[in-house]
Amino acid sequence: MAKFEIFKDVRGEYRWRLRSANGQIFAIGGEGFKQKSGAENGIAAVKRDAVAAEVMDLSDSPLTTAVSSKMEPGMAKKKLPPAL
């Protein structure tokens, strides 16, 4: 069974991640919180909102990564092509 985990990062901020039944991490909250309740609220929001979340297929849109100014946690930083 999948489980949410709350942990402290190297800055001492509370974060959450979602781990699958086989132990792999497949979601990480993108924000650190000073209070544990912030991470708990983030988990509650994911549980509430994911049920009705729309799936958007951006795989055929090469400019979607160039438009984003933030990298997802754990993604390798690479030079992006200039925006058109």
TrEMBL record:
All residue ranges annotated as the DUF1508 domain in the record: 10-57
InterPro entries: DUF1508, YegP-like_sf
Entry protein name: YegP family protein
